[in-house]
Batch of 2 targets.
Target 1
Amino acid sequence: MRKVLLLLFLLYSADLFAQNFSPLTMEYQFSGENSEIKQTGSIHLFFPVFVTGKNQVVLSPRYKFIGLSDSLPFGNTGFTSSV
Amino acid sequence: MNMAWRHQLNKHWNAAIFSSPSISSGFVNFSSNGLQWSSGLMLAYRKSPVLTYFLGMAYSYQFSNNLLIPIAGLNWSPISRVNLVADLPFRGQVSWDLNSKIQTGFLYLNNRFTSYIPNIQQYNYLWINERNLSWFTNLKMIRNWWLKFDLGYSISRELYAYDQLTRHSWQIGSQLNGFNQDPAYESSSKGLFLQCSIIYKMKK
């Protein structure tokens, strides 16, 4: 099974929008004291589910969170996005 | 869940259709009011092994805003080990492969985030845009695992909150200045940031 998945990755040229994509990316960013956006982070997957000679179908789910300053009047300091 | 279907039209042209339903809300009080949607069509023209142009059009539904976004860009390696990627107007990157284990370069990124704000009467929708310029370094660790460090400066971090959005508004553009109405709350700042990433790559 692992070899099949690796083969699918290799068959996929990873330049869907003329950019390079990676099967897995995890990011964490933190900002300075005076920023109202304190931290952000994300997990991004990218994998093919169907590959033939001229057709490729890929999925790329992403989860992102953002942490804001306590001083903001929104009642929430954490927000998430699931794509 | 982003989903895309790419079809190779001929030796030079590729077409791709994509759709991205998403949901954004408060972390604690998660609400289905944060549903959003985008979809679009892309065409890529591979002029040579080192130069690809692409263009397209995306449709995005963000709460009550309908947005048509023109897309244009390129991926170009003008000389060996140097790569230029532009995804206008959101992203521009120049990278240089120092060797097989170290890459470095500069990245300009418009980083946007929109969300529903739950359980508060005065504000209902959040819109954030960061314009970041950073110097990055990718270090190959073991097998296909890479560490990436971005040290950058946010030229602007704009944060807007809206109460109620105008129903069924339409815009053409990239929505880099918020929704098409006056925000109920706005602030901006700038400053340094540091980003650390772990990346699993199938290629170099």
Target 2
Amino acid sequence: MRLLIIEDDRDAADYLVRAFRETGHVADHAADGEEGLAMALDGDYDVLIVDRMLPKRDGLSVIGELRAKKVETPVLILSALGQVDDRVKGLRAGGDDYLPKPYSFSELLARVEVLARRRGGRNEETVYRVGDLELDRLSHRVTRGKEEVILQPREFRLLEYLMKHAGQVVTRTMLLENVWDYHFDPQTNVIDVHISRLRSKIDKGFSQPLLHTIRGAGYMIRDGSRN
Amino acid sequence: MMTALGKVVRTTAFKLTLAYLTVFALFAVFLLGYFALNTKRLFTEQVTEAVNTEINGLVDHFNAGGIRRLTLVVDARSRRPGSSLYLVTTPGADGLAGNVGSLPTGAMDKQGWAETVYRRIEETENSELHSALARVYHLPGGFRLLVGRDLEERDRLFQVVLDAGKWSAAVVIILGLVGGFFVARRVLRRVDAMTETTRTIMGGNLSGRLPVGSSGDELDRLAHNLNEMLDRIEALMRGLKEVSDNIAHDLKTPLTRLRNRAEEALRTASSEKDYRAALEGTIEESDSLIKTFNALLMIARAESGQARENMVDFDAAEAARSVGELYEPLAEEQGLSLEVDAPGAAPMRGNRELISQALANLVDNAIKYAGPLAKANGTVSAVTVAARSDGDRVILSVGDAGPGIPEADRDRAVERFVRLEKSRSIPGSGLGLSLASAVARLHGGELRLGDNGPGLRAELVLPRNGPVPQSVPQTEEREERAA
């Protein structure tokens, strides 16, 4: 992945550039809104990471300008303003995802990877397959091997989201946002319990588990035998 | 003294008095002028009528008895006290009868009305001339008859009116100025007192209040309202201080823990595994700090009313079902059963996300407190999430069979950071209930804690149509406290 980080805090930016390089990505850095806009227009980036409050030109206006010029590179907004209405404002301005500071790098990485992959898009597929697990988005049928798996509607949506991003880390917050449409932080980790229920329905009794817990980050569904 | 006078003169009350005074004076001048002119006209009319009548009578006498009878009658009338003016002359202008001595020459030559000067017959040549309104009538045979009235009376009356006007104008102006001065000074004194008080309040003494009189006039009402505003500000300031104290306490505690942990790792860790564990611990600790911080910001935002912009129409029953569904597996894992009792729709206007979060906090709390008790007793108790419409209100409730909150502690439980002593061992920021309460107040409703017999029953009572634009909930709150 090629990333552009538009962030005025030198330390935070350096940390991100280093961390992305360590995980095998290329990250450039722009220190203000004008520079960032120029680089985003020139370079071919997979994802832009934009801070909201920037010198010279604020983050939302950079995104607005890019969208006006038909640059559709996915944008993740990073901001200290983390309330629901700030988020709505950011997404309305053309951002694709919104992450309030302080964030954990694993959360950011997971979200950036999902955004980058979105370009290829798995949206058109009507049947998702991971190993011998199959999810039909039209008939809402889920089968593992030859057996049908009976899921509650919410469990279906949970599995659908995981399978849509098969092979990618999906964080708890991402699940809460995309499956439940909640943007607050429940005090207890309710998501874990939902996952273990789902796991017992799709993995129990099979030698090859598909739904994996990624420590310190979240969950991933993948065909273990392929990796 | 000059500046004090200048201050009074500059007041609105004094300026108003001046304006009224001017208008009143103009009106008085107009009224007096009108009165004087009309009096004059009326007097003239009366004179004219009386003179005409007399002339007609005298002409009748002349016609009946000739010049001799006329002179007799005129002489008789002339001698009456306060009589009119009479003069009968020959064609050669020699006086025959009457009380008029001298007239300007040729005054009798022309018939009709004229204002003229005269002297009475008994007066000498040197005495002053009087003015009169008179009518000259030419009788058959060349005799001339003059009947008139002295105008002194009229002029005197006019003078009286004029004098009255002058005096009353002087009195009005003096009284007006003095009255205006006193009214202005009285108002000024009260406003000065208010200014003085506000200055001490600005100086930092927030407990100062404006003096309120007993008359209930507009200044009293203003003072009363300002005092209420000051009450509100003082309460907010006190709240702010409490919050910052609490933040200092409840954020410093985990921060200290965080620091200690890092320090300890530096001092004692010997292997990479130890360092890793210490670092993971610090991350966990900072995550929970962030959670606390977010909850605080959230409460602050809800309390300041900023989140009111995002109110939409939504179904609270659906929100309750959704939250119930989110927590159902967790409840089951904790040995509880979660039941949702929200069969119908409960449409309302509000911030769906915040209400869901408030409800989630209540459910979270219920599970946290009822779970251990259920495990200890070895029974399955229920957490019930319910939503229903009740007239113009929507009631969202969460009931559990946990230990509950003693009635005396319920008010305190809603305050920020308060974790009742018994619950210190249970993890959490202690902000759940206060957040729910802030969300309820944001919507113009309230959070009620009650007995679920056994356990706690928390109810979010929300107005169906969203908050009333004014600060009604605050007034209600105050009344309740006073009651």
